[in-house]
Records
---
Amino acid sequence: MRLFSVFLFVAILVAGQGCVNVTSNSAERRSPGTQLEDESIETKAIANIKEKYKDTVQITVTSFNRFVLITGDAPSEDSKTGIERIVYSVLNVKKIANEVSVGVLPIPSVRRADAGITRDIKSTLNRKALTSGTVKIVTEKGVVYLLGLVTHADANTAAEIASTTSGVLKVVRVFEYID
């Protein structure tokens, strides 16, 4: 029985390592630690925003290499500023771009259209060999934000693809360049 337990443990360990390799993205330029920090920043920021503002705001927090993009809608300038303060209070945030709009919250069809734009851009990027690990895409009311650790050539390719995608009103580059 003990031998079976050891064998099972080794099999699980090997299978787990295989899963990591299968799902890892060779184009990902962030370290695994930075990827975890980015996920933690997003989770903590959203939880803290929801705690303070409940259902009065619709906010998306996107972190890439500890650079945080805040998008969405808030009812006032005070709440927009408060949201930025909350995000800055999260551990490991390096820099923030606060692109929150002040005013009426958008209707669900706008969110669906944004999701479709993001999906179309990702699909085209993948065909051009720029994978989701290279460029992160956020679409908010037809405005596309591009984040990532990229070369200037990759940035230009991503921006060109985004700007020629149906429904895109504007493209904003929020890149860190590696060349």
Note: Residues 2-25 have pLDDT under 50 and may be disordered.
---
Amino acid sequence: MFTEEVTIAEAETLSSLLGVSLISCEVLSTHSDRATYFAAARACSTHLFLDPDTGLFLGRLGHRREPAYLYADELAAIAARPKALTLVFDQSVPRGGERASLERKLSILAAEGLPGIGYVSHACFILVGREKGLVEDALRVLLRQSHLPKERFVGLLSI
């Protein structure tokens, strides 16, 4: 999620560094039509990684939509893609209260039909999808291949 202009070379460098294709190089600003901006994300048929400047905001319509955030209703629309997961970096958690903040966000997202997991760290993230089994499978793979400590995950930990 670019919030300032980037050159094609910078975008290609980022794409190469991450080892993924970018779905958009458009800049999100306070004047952007956010529905149009996120259309490519909603149409994406593969797993998706979103990196808002600040993180996931749970406010409802009426709150001024800042480009630094991804909003819960936007995430719900994006994550509605079948057989696909959406990973969002989330730096909008209070220091020392990361776990509780992620648990609250996951609870709200689950109530909207988005089961997910969160990871508590200096670089917190949330992983959601429409299919609980797919999220559970992703957690198993993460635990097995990343060697990240299980106690830092919140959400679907009954596996």
Note: The first strand starts at residue 48 and ends at 50.
---
Amino acid sequence: MLRSGTIKTLGALVVALSVGALVLLWLERLPAQPEVPLQAVNGLTPAGHAVIHETDVPLQAIKWRNVILHDIGKHGPAIAEQCHFLIGSADQYGDGAIVPTRRWRLQKAGDHIHVPGHSFEECSVGVCVLVDSRRVAPTRRQLAAVIHVVRGLQLACHIPPDRVYLHSELGEQGCPGGRFQGRAFRDRLIPATR
């Protein structure tokens, strides 16, 4: 037979666990708050930032720790299907259009990066520019869109610039190709906050 003190303790524990679970569910539904006010970031407006929040489930900002940039040159269009965002071309979606994929909308891991000994798939957002930058440089609109979406991801998911990679920096030579303006891209990322 249980004593009165034991029953009260168990009752208090059940109440505390229930309240804790409700608080966690409530917090999970809140959008991540950027460290920098959106208006303070040159060229990124709150309306433009909305594409990052186009999800069918709550944005799992804490999950995403890296951004990996690809193009379709080396792997063909199949790589685009494995990424979270596509940057459109004149032939597909419109030049510079930012298209969140089903993987992003469902906050699912990508299948766009394989680095032996590391689990980048689970925590890396894949962004694919629909251009073969081995042969042709991305258009100005495509480059602007890449910068826009990556900066939005940096804000929403608190990703520092040293966690934004070109696929080629992780061992996959030629992705993106040599005509991708890597330096111009890096110069436009949001600097790390101190």
Note: The beta strands are 66-71, 85-87, 98-100, 124-129, 164-166.
